[in-house]
Write a structure and sequence with these properties.
The protein is of the alpha/beta class. It is 36% helix and 17% strand. The chain has 2 domains: 154 residues, Glycogen Phosphorylase B (Rossmann fold, 3-Layer(aba) Sandwich), CATH 3.40.50; 196 residues, Rossmann fold (3-Layer(aba) Sandwich), CATH 3.40.50.
């Protein structure tokens, strides 16, 4: 029987949320154990600190702090806690994930096994490797991590989890009323992290966004437009093309915590987003989600909710990023111009299909 368990949730928000069903199963199987989580991205920390199945969530930005500071933190704050089991969530291919798991000191260390990386990426530092399947959804690959513990999971019975504190939900409702927002509203997100080279091009071009916004306004929607740290370039575009609508029918949303963003998505009840952590927030909140996919595969990372509708690119080369062993997004489409801010498959997503999804979900 394990007494102290550490979940290493080092990837971003989306990957962390897709591991929450596994965390619930783990808690139900070890009701008396202390279950903690270690994160290195702020968003992941925020969504786990309100997770009812986790006792304590630790946050340390390992990649930003460097080797010496990271080693000091682990040896001072984590290893002395005496964990006897650690689980590294999927997908965790790079070596630094496995080095961190090893240094944390648990006697039993579970992670996913890949077709490569056993030596080069130091997967060998784990005591138990559970072979991942590229044809399975990330939620399923996370649930599979529990098989060495004898825990069997039914993917059909699980859902992502995110708890919004009452005070934050109250804030969202007050925001809604103060802005005179109608109940016919949509939260829109067009952004991506820059963890891997090329992920910044996993977004929709502005001309596409502009067309979609016009269609949404024609249908009478209020639009809450997400502007996180990586999406601030779109503020200037909004001010140029929709100046008269700002604060009336389009509201730029910026400077909020991830839980505040989640609360506004929950209040809107409808989210349109490219494949991103924000998209998975919508799935965890069980609101209606329209997910837009180009380079990534829906069978791996589609919104895990029955309230979702996905729109994919019609290009024959898409999806092309289906192997997490690849450490960057590369485009082989002959029409791809490296100077363009987006990939061709993102430009090829049909706005008409998005509107069809909107009709289907409403």
């Amino acid at each position: 029987m394990f007494k102290r368990i550490l979940i290493l949730s080092l990837p971003g928000i989306g990957d962390t949320l897709m591991a929450t069903p596994m965390m619930k199963y783990l808690r139900e199987s070890f009701t008396q154990a202390t279950i903690d989580a270690l994160t290195m991205q702020r968003g992941s920390y925020e969504v786990l600190k309100v997770n009812p199945h986790i006792d304590t969530v630790f946050y340390f930005p390992f990649l930003k702090k460097g080797v010496r500071a990271s080693l000091s933190y682990i040896l001072r704050e984590i290893r002395p806690r005496g964990y006897d089991l650690s689980i590294t969530i999927y997908p965790s291919y790079p070596k630094h994930y496995h080095v961190v798991a090893y240094l944390c000191g648990a006697k039993m260390r579970i992670a996913n096994g890949f077709e490569s990386g056993y030596v080069k990426e130091l997967h060998l530092l784990n005591t138990h490797l559970v072979q991942m399947k590229l044809t399975d959804h990330n939620v399923v690959n996370n649930l599979r991590l529990l098989t060495p513990l004898g825990i069997r999971c039914n993917p059909d019975d699980v859902k992502l989890e995110l708890t919004i504190p009452t005070d934050i939900m109250d804030w969202a409702n007050e925001f809604w009323h103060s802005m005179n927002l109608s109940d016919k509203a949509v939260y829109f997100h067009n952004g991506s992290s820059k963890i891997k080279k090329g992920t910044e091009k996993k977004i929709l071009p502005w001309w596409w966004v502009r067309k979609l916004l016009h269609r949404l306004l024609e249908e009478g929607y209020n639009v809450l437009f997400n502007l996180g740290p990586e999406e601030q370039w779109q503020r200037e575009m909004l001010e140029c093309d929709f100046k008269a609508e700002l604060g009336k029918r389009i509201w730029p949303i910026s400077g909020l915590s991830i839980l505040q963003v989640a609360a506004l998505i929950k209040r809107a009840g409808l989210l349109i987003a490219n494949d991103s952590g924000i998209m998975h927030l919508g799935a965890a909140l069980n609101v209606r989600v329209i997910g837009l996919f180009g380079v990534t595969a829906t069978y791996q990372v589609a919104p895990w909710t029955a309230n979702a509708c996905t729109v994919t690119s019609d290009l024959p080369c898409a999806p092309c990023y289906t192997d997490y062993a690849k450490r960057e997004f590369r485009c082989s489409n002959p029409k791809y111009n490296p100077s363009n801010p987006t990939f061709p498959c993102m430009e090829a997503i049909s706005i008409e299909k998005v509107m069809e999804c909107l009709t289907k979900l409403t």
